[in-house]
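Quick look at the format.
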Amino acid sequence: MESNQFHEEILQNGWSSAFLNNVKKDEIDFEIAWYRYIEDKYRWLFILNLENLIWVALLLVLFLGMYLIRYRNKKILEKWEYEEQIYGFDNPHYSSDYLDFPNEKE
């Protein structure tokens, strides 16, 4: 059937009827058959399914967030260790007197 005839049938009988007469399947059965064909022919295309893409992206964001938090915490701990070496209690050159305000010594 030519596309002009298909368009005429759509105008006369409606989309569902024209589709059923030409493809011999309703829209749902056609979609299921099309997904099976794509799945058999191109196995990796399941990633392009929106639901799968959302879950994959969510997992990537989760793992990236976990890595960034661990990296940030590691840097903070390294900074604290460095500050403890410089300003720590083991260093006799620094005392807690520098924290006292002049008005509070009275």
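Next, a different chain entirely:
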Amino acid sequence: MSVMIWLINQGRQIEKNNVARSGQSVALRRVSMSMPLIATCMMTGCASGTPPTPTPLPPMYPASLLVKCPTLPMATSGKLVDLINNHIDVAERYHDCASTHNNLVDLIHDR
């Protein structure tokens, strides 16, 4: 702001000096006085740009949905009872993991 006041005062001094010159018109004197002020205003307009857009924060997901699926167990022997028990255990782990994965996918699609 103080620069603009200084420029206005400089313009007034120029106008006073130009009053002594009778060859210039009043309009020309006013134009020569306002040129520094116009230039200052134009330069301050370039200095204030638009602020940078903030980067969005990464989405936060519940920790319970970010757990890897457990490894599936292998059958301990070739007996039919062990194979059936292993199959039941694998099926339970698969469905638990699929449920967690589906909940995560639903959460991502809802956002």
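The chain has a mean pLDDT of 80.

See the schema section for token definitions.
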